[in-house]
Amino acid sequence: MTAHYNPHALEPEIQNRWADVDAFRTELPADAKVEDTFYCLSMFPYPSGYLHVGHARNYTIGDVISRFQRMLGKHVLHPMGWDAFGLPAENAALKNGVSPAAWTKENITYMRAQFKRLGFSFDWSRELATCHPDYYRWEQWFFLKLYEKGLVYRKNAVVNWDPVDQTVLANEQVVDGKGWRSGAPVERREIPQWFLKITDYAEELLASLDELPEWPEQVRAMQRHWIGKSRGVALQFDVIDPQHLLTEQTDTSLQVFTTRPDTLMGVTYLAIAAQHPLSTALAPNNAALRLFIEDCRHIRVSEADIATLDKAGIDTGLKAIHPLSGEAVPIWVANFVLSDYGTGAVMSVPAHDQRDWEFAHTYGLPIKAVIRPTDAEAADVSQGAFTDLGVLYHSAPYDGLTSEAAFEQISHDLKQANKGEQHTQFRIRDWSVSRQRYWGTPIPIIYCETCGSVPVPESDLPVQLPQSVTFDDTGSSPLKRLDAFINTDCPQCGKPAHRETDTFDTFMESSWYYARFASNNNPHTMVTPDANTWLPVDQYVGGIEHAVLHLLYARFFHKLMRDLGLVSSNEPFKRLLCQGMVLAETYYQDLENGGKKYFNPAEIDIERDQKGRIIRASHRADGSTVVCGPIEKMSKSKNNGVDPQQLIDTYGADTVRLFSMFAAPPDQSLEWSDSGVEGSFRFLKKLWRLVMEHDPKAAQTATKTWTSTQQDVRRKIHHTIAKTTDDISRRYRFNTAIAAIMELSNTLQKMVRTTPEDHAVYEEGLRSSVLLLAPITPHICQRLWEHLGETSLLLDQAWPKVDEQALVQSEITLVVQVNGKLRGKILVNPNDEQSVWVAAATAEPSIQKFIHAGQIRKTIVVPGKLINFVVT
Ligand code: ANZ
Ligand code: ZN
Fold it and tell me: What phi and psi values does residue 29 have, to the nearest 5 degrees?
């Protein structure tokens, strides 16, 4: 029976078969050892309601790795859940009037079905959604444990304030500095917020990056930069106030942090941030300064902005006394100084720092060079700062010291003078976890007029998020108006009190879900002890956009959980694979207003010339010409997304899976192409035919004596097994593994099959191909497996082993040259001594003509390739 390949009938059938035996439920035997387990996790999705190709790729990668490890005999944990809190649910509520909870639930149902249709081997019994109280209660519990340990605090921090809608905006709701609904310029406001002390762990988060050799170096570098450790000196300048601008109470010692104490003798002014206490103290009597501070309030200064910012500032009239030279230098307020880095004040050395140079240049402040290149008399600072390390000059008594030596000497002298000392500064800030949003985990704190901030008692957890709420059209959090939620009694004194109405940053939920999966949603504890048999996650798969925040927060949480005795490892993710982007062609028409209207590739007809070059692209509906734009990341804005559901409907899940693994290595970007998908489909049809054509009975009487042609095919088979195994396990090069299997199928197709041995070798080739492809295209492979006479589930078969014997080549062809000219070819046994090959070559009549005994001056043998006789 050679039925046609019909994935639409076949795939659901196979999926039902898996479901019938609950094939993906993970049971961990009590005596299981850590080495026998494999935890494979793909970053859980936000349930936006539709699957995109990036998801399909991400989860196929994780699925292939999981199925492969299972065939290697590991106990595999491969869970899936939903990162279900977040802003889009609130937006949908505003737009369509559905509740965020109902919207989220519906999306989850739809996406779960799509995942099942793709045949992913998830253990659905461990499914979780972070918006469920069973989940977030443990987050609240954990937060309160951190509160007890002093790792949580509350302080004022800046938020985006929409003055028209009278509400706090999330960063995503600020578009070009304006509120997304009102269009009003956003203001910065300070309100009290909760923070987690991630800075307490900065040193360890940095150091243990070295324990992660199986992470991409790029990601580790990004984390290192984010943590930003700088070694330098914190020192004091005394402020003098010749014009009596300050009141008696003002602190007149000004602290700065510098990474370049070697440049200290080149300081020509000090610069402080607009929000620095000194500028605040001066502002009431200085209108110009007040204006300047106000201007600074509107610019959002990030580090990246500072480099390009037009440097501006204002002279305060105050002076600072240089701690070593005693010289007085002016103090300026400057827009390039960050208020929350270091001390919010900088000793400016315009000769050796570019920002300082630009500022000095603008305001005509002196530029004094004190560091020269090792091989020059002086530094040239006429066009810009000289920022390299070098040798000190104009810096008596430090002249002639190298920058490195001066770092030590000057910090030593400052310490002696009681003016400063060495200090390590981190760029990373504590993590503000408060969000003024509704759809998130309620922060479990109660405010009492008498007792202050009081934690919700453990027995009252979870603090449930009310589900029936009404949104007004500002989009502000309905919790803030919900008296039934807000009003409560103080757990300490019993008097009326009110609840915190902020919710947690949704990064909180994604920081520990991996540990929850390993705890099988245990209702009595956040993380079960046996979760440690799974942890750390052996393979984590996800997008590079999470290289900094998500991965850093999860690493932080893991260390917090470790220090609370919940997990026994130091790091959550042992090996990390960041999948590349999915790209596709773009098509557009120019609009009259200068904009572009983008069309989905599915609506475009393409005409090509004979060489396949595009002559014209047109919009199918009306035939109008469209412009072929560049290939870009699939996105809504470029309307170039491909709907995986459509592809599944056309080709089936296996083709989608095969194409996403074949088109590119997983960490590189993948260019979507219809012809590529077609090609993958064709290959599956061909494999189907090759197997269906085979009659297992024909091989039954085969002996194990192979002809050399059969040996060649067997060598190819086992070579393919070896390559595929290495490609998948060590290199994650699924594309080259698939290419090798395709090549093998070509070899099999060409095989002339007459004897039982021919059929046996052919069958060996088919069985190996089916086993090797099983993790990638599991549905078709299961059916083909059955055709090969098996009844068992393919997913529990052992991964094929290489027959080393089959790899041994019994004969190879050697090229024989005389004086570098090709004169013949001989067949030799590769295991023989080279002298035997040489003898065989000289015995060959076609060669003998060219060599005359006794005249061979030299014999060159390139093993496995050629023999060259040099004759005179
Ligand atoms: C004098 C100096 C001379 C500096 C020189 C650099 C080069 P990292 O490496 O990022 O830690 N700085 C300190 N606090 C600042 C703030 N709040 N806003 C803006 N800049 C600030 O950078 C530390 C250096 O950045 C410090 O060393 C200081 O400038 C500046 F040739 O001090 B330096
Ligand atoms: Zn109280």
Answer: -60, 145
CB of 335 within 6 A of ligand 1: the answer is: no
Atom 25 in ligand 1: which residue has the minimum CA distance?
A: 258
Centre of ligand 2 to C-alpha 506, Å, is 29
**Smallest-distance ligand from the CA of 447:** 2
Say which ligand is closest to the CA of 368: 1
Closest CA to 428 of 223, 207, 199: 199
How many CB atoms are closer than 10 A to CB 72? Answer: 14
Q: Is the C-beta atom of 344 inside 6 A of ligand 1?
A: yes
Interval 46-70 mean pLDDT: 93
**Separation of CA 258 and ligand 1 centre (Å):** 5
* Ligand 1 atom showing the smallest separation from residue 351 Cα: 31
Contact 449, 214 (CB under 8 A): no
pLDDT at 524 (0 to 100) = 97
How far from chain centre, in Å, is Cα 633?
Answer: 16
pLDDT tens digits, one per residue of 451-472 = 999 999 999 999 999 998 988 8
352 alpha carbon – ligand 1 mean position (Å): 11
Tokens of 737: 């593994």
Asked if residues 456 and 444 have their Cβ atoms less than 8 Å apart, the reply is yes
pLDDT value of residue 1: 46
Which of 23-32, 160-169, 308-317, 778-787 reaches the highest mean pLDDT? 778-787
7 upstream amide cis, omega within 30 of 0: no
Residue-wise pLDDT for 374-397, tens only, equals 999 999 999 999 999 999 999 999
